[in-house]
Amino acid sequence: MSPNANHLGETTGLTPTQMYYDFSPYDYDDSQFFVHPEHWHMVAKIQADGLYRVTYGEQAGLTYDELKARQPEKFRAFLPGNPTPDQYKLVNYSPYKVHQRCVDKMRVGRFLLAADAAHLCNPWGGLGLTGGIADVGSLYDSFVGIHTGRADADEILDKYDEVRRNIWHEVINPQSQENMRRLFKYSGPDEAMEKDSFFKLLKKMELAQKGELELNEPTVSCFLFVVRS
């Protein structure tokens, strides 16, 4: 599996954690993303009992022990209330290096690859999951065509390989990289709001919701990113 030339893995690590902490005094939603040049992260409630997933960016190249030793100060730096370890319960800690990779072939003879077996990307935006589901759907359609005699097996499976790899290179890879870089490439929220077209669109949508702006352009469904310094 070859890395993309612009992949993030050489410089970027991610640290997904699961923890219990009282976010109720801080007006947090069930899910939010925070833009910051150093302490970019996301916080999402994943269970009704108050279990949260907190995933944050880290330096690539550090050992597990080095990353684990940095965790208390990272939480203290970016979580509301600047909690110390005695104020939350950490139940899972799973750091890893980001990969943006795709195989050279998703079909060789009778062997077919799909989803994470064929390509990897960072999790921001859910494009790995979405791409994997689309792979399986495309394979299903191919097999139906073969079974019903409407498609030649070699031709349709080669086409599956070609189309799905092209979509990874042309859509999934660049978009997922941009989704992730958006969280840390700006010096702060003012620059992000001034330069980033995605944030500009969010601002327009916010004003339109308040009745302060009439949108004359198509809007899109998107994740809500919270911009904070």
Please describe what this structure looks like.
The chain is an alpha+beta fold. 37% of the residues lie in helices and 21% in strands. The chain has helices at 64-78, 127-147, 153-181, 189-195, 197-209, and strands spanning 2-3, 12-20, 31-35, 41-45, 51-59, 89-93, 96-97, 101-102, 107-108, 111-112, 119-120, 225-227. The model is unreliable at 220-229 (pLDDT under 50). 23% of the residues are buried. The strands form three sheets. Strands 2, 3, 4, 5, 6, 7 and 12 form a seven-stranded mixed beta sheet that branches. Strand 4 and strand 5 form a beta hairpin. The protein has five helices and twelve strands.
SS summary, helix count: 5
The chain-level mean pLDDT equals 90
Order of helices and strands: EEEEEHEEEEEEHHHHE
Q: End-to-end span in angstroms?
A: 38 Å
Gyration radius (Cα, Å) is: 21 Å
Tally of discrete structural domains = 3
CATH architecture of the largest domain: 2-Layer Sandwich
CATH class descriptor of the largest domain: Alpha Beta
Shape category: globular
Largest sheet: 7 strands, mixed
> What percent strand?
15-25%
Tally the beta strands. 12
Q: Tell me the CATH topology of the largest domain.
A: Alpha-Beta Plaits
List the topology elements.
Elements: E1 2-3, E2 12-20, E3 31-35, E4 41-45, E5 51-59, H1 64-78, E6 89-93, E7 96-97, E8 101-102, E9 107-108, E10 111-112, E11 119-120, H2 127-147, H3 153-181, H4 189-195, H5 197-209, E12 225-227
Parallel strand pairs: 3-12
Antiparallel strand pairs: 1-8, 2-5, 2-6, 2-7, 3-4, 4-5, 8-11, 9-10
Helix pairs in contact: 2-3, 4-5
